[in-house]
Each structure stands twice: as C-alpha cells, then as structure tokens.
C-alpha cells in the first residue's frame, strides 16, 4: 500500500511538472508572469494550483494516518461492514467474508420479521413479548460477538505467508517447521469456519422460533422457556458463551 502511494505521488508530481512546463515555457504556451495582466493572473493561478495539488497529494498519500478499525473499536453494524471489507479482497478469505456479510443481512431481516410477528401476536407490554424479544436480542449480540472474534483472527492474517505455506512453495523452512505451520493455518481457518457455522446455526434457530410463534394460538409466559426452539437457542447460547470464555 505504501509503495502504491509513492507511485501515485510520483505520478502527480510528473503531471504537475508537465502542465507547468507546457503552460509557462516559451517553447509552448509561453504564459509569462509579469507580462500582461491576464497572463500574470493565469501564471500565478497555475503555480498556486500546482502547489496546492502537491501539498494535498503528499499529505493524503504520504503523511495522513489511515484510520483502521480494530475489533475493540467496532460497535455499530457499519463498523462491522467497514472492518470486514478489506478482507473480501484476500483470495483465501473472500468466500468466508462474503458469507459473513450475507449472514449479517439475513440476521437483520430475521430480527425485523420476528419483531413484526411478535407485534402481531402480542401486546408490546406483555411479558411474552418481552421474553421473545429479549432472546432475539441476545442471539443477535452473540452473533456479532462471533464476528468480532473472527475479526480478531483476521487482523493478524498474513496472506503471503499463508500462500507460501499452504502451497508448500517455500524452501526456507524445514519439513518439520513447514508441517507445523501448515497445521497452524489449518487450525486458523477451521476456527473462522466454525464461528461462521455457529452463526448459521443461530439463524436457523431464529427460523425455528419464528415458525413456532406463528403456530401459537396462545401461550403462558411460564411456558415460553419450554418451547423446543427456545430450548435449542438457550443451549446454543450457553455452549457458545462457554467456548468464548
């Protein structure tokens, strides 16, 4: 990335120099500062614009600190989207990141559908409504906690090293070390896929809960915890929290 910025700056500098030469050189346009008032104004404007372009380019490409969203700073859905976006361009991670983004969209839709169904079946002040909504919130929070744990792994991912190790093209490692590195990256990718799989389970549990709620004629608040879908969700939440500890 730094090399690309230097190339951009070099290109900008060359472009500014060419424009200035073509405009001010007597061999070309021959605009003279100190000649006529119009020529002077044009020449001064060109030099000022050139200086501004170079200052802006050098600041933006060479000195400006790039803001990086670390997992600890991620709070909103937009933060998650911004944090995941760079990894969608990494070949080894693109499929998993794409699936994660798709899961986020489905979670939004399922949560909205669940709340709509609850509003149709229960009064918002009822305890039943509050219990179902609370479980949906907990599932959503755990869902995004899983994504944050994936991002914690992604920030230390070395694409070039991964490619060398997994294609066994590196001659710098002994067979034993290469085997250990292969095992490390295999476990690394398995963790990411497992977290994505857990989130897929959460989406499925919400589907089951929606189906059960839609079939209800009436239910007592005390019976909610014993609904099959609620029991499955509770088990998944406890299991996931256990592994996160």
Automatic annotation (TrEMBL):
It comes from Cohnella herbarum. The keyword Transmembrane helix applies. This is 5-bromo-4-chloroindolyl phosphate hydrolysis protein. The keyword Membrane applies. Keywords: Membrane, Transmembrane, Transmembrane helix. The chain crosses the membrane at residues 12-35, 41-63. It comes from the Bacteria.
């Amino acid at each position: 990335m730094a090399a690309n910025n230097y190339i951009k700056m070099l290109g900008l500098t060359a472009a500014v120099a060419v424009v200035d030469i073509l405009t001010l050189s007597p061999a070309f346009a021959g605009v003279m500062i100190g000649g006529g008032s119009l020529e002077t104004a044009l020449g001064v404007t060109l030099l000022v614009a050139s200086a501004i372009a170079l200052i802006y380019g050098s600041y933006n490409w060479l000195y400006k600190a790039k803001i990086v969203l670390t997992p600890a700073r991620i709070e909103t859905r937009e933060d998650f989207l911004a944090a995941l976006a760079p990894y969608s361009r990494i070949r080894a991670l693109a499929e998993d990141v794409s699936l994660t983004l798709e899961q986020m969209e489905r979670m939004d839709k399922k949560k909205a559908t669940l709340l709509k169904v609850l509003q149709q079946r229960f009064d918002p002040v009822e305890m039943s409504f509050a219990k179902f909504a609370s479980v949906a919130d907990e599932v959503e929070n755990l869902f995004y906690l899983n994504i944050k744990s994936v991002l914690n792994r992604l920030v230390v991912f070395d694409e070039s090293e991964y490619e060398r190790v997994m294609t066994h093209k590196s001659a710098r490692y002994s067979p034993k070390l290469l085997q250990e590195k292969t095992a490390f990256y295999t476990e690394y990718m398995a963790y990411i896929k497992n977290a994505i799989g857990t989130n897929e389970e959460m989406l499925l549990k919400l589907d089951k809960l929606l189906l059960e709620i839609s079939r209800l004629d009436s239910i007592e608040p005390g019976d909610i915890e014993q609904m099959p879908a609620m029991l499955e969700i509770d088990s998944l939440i406890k299991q996931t929290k256990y592994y996160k500890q």
